[in-house]
Amino acid sequence: MTTQKLKNIINHYRKWKGGNPDTWVEHCVAQKDLKNTIIYAALSENHLGKRNGHQRRLKKLNLEKFAAKLVDNIKKIEDARTFEELLKIVESCRIKGVGELACYDAANRIGAKLGLSPDLIYLHAGTRRGAEKLLGKRLKGKSIRKTDLPNTFQGDDITPAEIEDILCIYKNRF
Question: pTM for the full model?
């Protein structure tokens, strides 16, 4: 894929994202206490009570059990110093019926409240497919670094979380 095509994709993403804030993240950040942030992050609910599309097929009961386990680990979550540490804690609370994308999304929402953001690009579902198509090879492992990607993704003006989003959203264009 040419550098110009990648730049066009990034620019399109930024224009689209600028008009489409992540109301699930915003709702979690707006909570007065970490317990409520954790609950809404796990339930994947925004300020309107609408569930995020990523978790639309998950059973509410499973999300409620996941939320309860996370709340039981609130002290560990509070003490997390990096996004990677937070994600490991969230994943340790995973229950049957709650997948890796739900864990990543919950960690991302909680991390936004705690000021923790990813340093790596986490590969799950669509993000993995997008990265594999872009790089032309199968990827092993749970994450990649920005340096594993073409130069267009190397700037300080694009975050690993944005790259994760781009790889997923535009997976069929790579």
Answer: 0.90
Taking every pair of Cα atoms in the chain, the longest distance, rounded to a whole number of angstroms, is 48
Alpha helices in the chain (DSSP H): 3-18, 23-30, 34-43, 60-72, 74-79, 83-92, 100-114, 125-135, 160-169
At 122-171, the pLDDT tens digits run 998 899 999 999 999 999 999 999 999 999 999 999 999 999 999 999 99
Tens digit of each residue's pLDDT (9 = 90 or more) over 102-124: 999 999 999 999 999 999 999 98
Backbone phi and psi for residue 85, each to the nearest 5 degrees, phi listed first: -65, -45
CA distance 32 to 44: 17
For the record, the structure tokens of 156 come out as 């300080």
